[in-house]
Please model this.
Amino acid sequence: MVPQFLQAFGKMDFPGDYQGKTLVVIQLSGGNDGLNCVIPYQNDLYYNARPDLGLEPTRVIPLKNGIGLNENLKGLADLFNAGHLSIINGVGYPNPNRSHFRSMDIWQTASDEGKVLNTGWIGRYLDASCNGAIGATVVKPHTAIEIDDYLSLSMKGDIKKGLAFNNPDNLHLAMDNRILRTVSSNYHEDHVHPKIEFLYKTLVDTTQSADYIFNHSKKYKSNKIYPLNDFGRRMKVIAQLICSGAETRIYYVSLSGFDTHTFQKDKHNKLLKVFGDTLKTFCDDLKDNDRFKDTVVMTFSEFGRRVAQNASKGTDHGTANNIYIAGGGLTKAGIYNEMPDLKNLDNGDLIYKIDFRQVYATILDKWLNTDHRHVLNGKYSLLNFI
Model:
């Protein structure tokens, strides 16, 4: 099924081990309660608003100036104390939307609240990479990988898309199909419609990426003990691909369950332990293989929660939240900016101080070596965490 114009591409050798910068995006789906993650444990307003949900000072890991981390985020505390974590507070956007679906679309597309886009910010980065806007670059499906059954909107561009799979072995098995291989070896380019030509190219690209990922998944097997859950397994797959030298630049993974409207405390604490322990193990894995200094991990959620607890001992959809940046090459680690002002709220919600697209712009410009204006359709002031 390989058209003649693709024959050269199909015979290309893949380059050696990738030595460039890598971005890992972790999505906490459901609206993570950042105020019970990064806790102002010496602020009475916090406890007044959360008589049941507020974590007692004895259950907080102190960081500095009356700010601490939830005791279940010991993994983050270890990274913080080692200078490998930057906590950015009050991240959001104007006119925040409290719908899970719309707010997640906004974060994934980097759009304004009143504008709907059908491409994601990472997908547009892939488009810009292959059309020469940021230099001549070969973009394969495995340039951006999502460890999931479905591809997020953030990974979809007009020209290029990322590749979603849950397991490298299953991906390889799905593409190692006798019928597809037979058709491929017997294809002749005679009066092929452009849309069919596109399908041929997609098949070639995906098949090659499946082979490439499968081979690299066998090159390095981690000896780290990751938490025995789906998130731990997915992060281990990412670590093994990075440490194997796979040329993927961006990895995307999600952890769900953060829509904690009722009886939040125990559910949220369990999720935070899964997240914190897994991230610490992941970072240690990269350190041991000299890949941590070239990797940035960005963790976000579609919104935070309201400051006051509700009648069901949970929290409802809020607005601004914190973002966690982990990596071995941070230029400004620690508490990046001031904590949210609990005295000055917008109808019970936190007021954002940093537009989330400033975070994206910083990563695009300083880490992925591109002009963010080609990707974000606008100019944003940069931050200095990298």
Remarks:
- Residues 4-353 form a domain with the Alkaline Phosphatase, subunit A fold (CATH 3.40.720).
- The first strand starts at residue 22 and ends at 29.
